[in-house]
Amino acid sequence: MKELTMPIGKARSNLCGVVKKVQSGVRVTLTSHGRPQAVIVPVENKGKPWRVGKPDDPSRYGDLQSPVMEDWK
Question: Is the pTM of this model over 0.70?
């Protein structure tokens, strides 16, 4: 992984550019007065995003449309 070090102020003034570099795989270390303060790294791609499966058979849950109680008093 490529690495880049830059002052926080420079990163702040060019945040979009920094994010684009990180998205392309560059690890960015932000410094203040020459000392590392934070690291921005790309998100790990763990494959397909999670998806909800097919719904269960609704007949298993009984009657879901009829009123539950009589009118409230």
Answer: no
